[in-house]
Amino acid sequence: MRVLIVEPGQYPREADIDGSLDTLQHIVGGLIETLYPWEDRAVLICNDEGKLMGLPLNRSLEDYDIIAGTFFICGLGDEDFCSLTEAQMEHYKSKYRMPELFFKTPDGVKGKPCSPSVYRLFMGQPERQRSEAEHER
């Protein structure tokens, strides 16, 4: 099944997964939660306890929530999860393209898009071996 994996501080990446429960849980690092925030038969799968576990905040979900930890997006078939269509893949790659840094404000927690290198700088993470330019290829 072709999915889009979105990790905190990283650009999203396409992956082929087998769709087993063990694989889904491995990707998100625990129990899965399924969210259906869109009308295009795509589903967001994240860690059910991500915020309770203190996983890093990842991306804003529309204007009502923030997903903590790694999540992925897949298609929704008639009876099970399935691959994203090419159009869905491109749409969600664009939508979640930029990592976000989150800040407390008087109006609540707000996200600000940034590059992976800026994210690492603010989060105190070491540079990765692979450069962002290599990722763009």
Structure summarized in a few sentences:
By secondary structure, the protein is an alpha+beta fold. The chain is 23% helix and 35% strand. The strands form three sheets. Strands 1, 2, 3, 4, 7 and 8 form a six-stranded antiparallel beta sheet that branches. A two-stranded antiparallel ribbon has the order 5-6.
Salient structural properties:
disordered C terminus; 137 residues; two-stranded antiparallel ribbon; globular; 23% helix; alpha+beta; 4 helices; 6-stranded antiparallel β-sheet
Give a written overview of the molecule:
The protein is of the alpha+beta class. The chain has one domain. Helix content is 23%, strand content 35%. The chain is built from 4 helices and 10 strands; from the N terminus they run ββαββββββαββαα. The chain has helices at residues 21-28, 86-95, 116-123, 132-136, and strands spanning 2-6, 13-16, 32-35, 42-47, 57-61, 65-68, 71-76, 81-82, 100-105, 108-113. The strands form 3 sheets. Strands 1, 2, 3, 4, 7 and 8 form a 6-stranded antiparallel beta sheet that branches. A two-stranded antiparallel ribbon has the order 5-6. The relative contact order is 0.19. It comes from Ruthenibacterium lactatiformans. This is DUF3846 domain-containing protein. Residues 1-96 form the DUF3846 domain. It holds the Pfam family DUF3846.
Question: What's the pLDDT, averaged over the residues?
Answer: 91
The description of the largest β-sheet is: 6 strands, antiparallel
Q: Whole-Å distance between the termini?
A: 23 Å
- Rg over alpha carbons: 15 Å
- The beta-strand count equals 10
What structural class results from the helix and strand content? alpha+beta
Shape: globular
Q: What is the count of helical runs?
A: 4
Order of helices and strands: EEHEEEEEEHEEHH
Strand content: 35-45%
Helix content: 10-25%
Parts with pLDDT < 50 across at least 5 consecutive residues: 129-137
| Count of individual domains | 1
